[in-house]
Specification:
mainly alpha
């Protein structure tokens, strides 16, 4: 199998005025792409909205730990 290098790019490489590659631009693009993918993943893990709101996690936690109070009589 022969591997060849392509000298032509579909889009030109963004450069700075001094001719070097604009790495800050490509790092920002990468961060944005990762952020969008992370948000897509997080949204896919959240269950569909319920018709009746669920108690918060803290309410559920405290509900499991409720202990009746004793009166000193």
């Amino acid at each position: 199998m022969e591997i060849t290098m392509h000298e032509e790019h579909e889009t030109p490489i963004r450069t700075r005025p001094d001719g070097s590659i604009d790495t800050a631009y490509y790092m920002a693009r990468g961060r944005l792409a990762r952020s969008e993918q992370a948000h897509r993943l997080a949204r896919s893990l959240v269950p569909a909205a319920r018709s009746q709101p669920d108690r918060s996690w803290l309410d559920r936690l405290m509900g499991l730990m409720r202990v009746p109070l004793r009166r000193n009589t």
